[in-house]
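Q: Here's a chain of 208 amino acids. Please give me its 3D structure as tokens.
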Amino acid sequence: MARERKKAHRTEEYWGRPVPGFGDPAAQLLVIGLAPAAHGANRTGRMFTGDRSGDWLYRALFRAGFANRPESRSRGDGMRLRGAYVTAPVRCAPPANKPTPEERDACAPWLAAELDLLGAARVGMCLGSFAWGVMLRTLAQRGHEVPRPRSRFGHGAIARIGDVALVGSYHPSQQNTFTGRLTEEMFDGVFVAARTLLSDLGQGPDPF
């Protein structure tokens, strides 16, 4: 991606390397995406920054009280998250935006390390079925009793697993937002659900 730059951004500096998570170290809400966008996070070096998916996400985080501003353009724009942390199971922009199991597994230690550090996290908002599956798999590997059959992904789906919970949301990709599959009202609704779960779960003894 860094070698073959998009014409609209050819004068900008591309990272061309893995993109780290971003947010509040004391976050209770963990937002899990898919992977860095080729000309969004891969270009700016910050998750969900510099593309239309990020525009949707940070506007929603702002409306829900998790962000100090409604837009994020670059790493130095002053964006701060309060009580939320944004990450992805895959850290490099995958070809055709479709991560392989090998990519998922290669990046798994980084997600696990973040979960170790985010000791206050109790609710994971999974943006898409890929994130939902990865989080169920990760929680099971970390010793949580994940019910079988595993909860199915859907917009607004909730899976309570001991003292933590997952909330499902359609990914704010252009494929979903341009077609109306995901509206801002729907997106706000899952943040309301996440707030309710955080209130119910409190500071339990068993984090992610």
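Q: Can you summarize the key feature?
A: Residues 156 and 190 are 6 Å apart (CA to CA).
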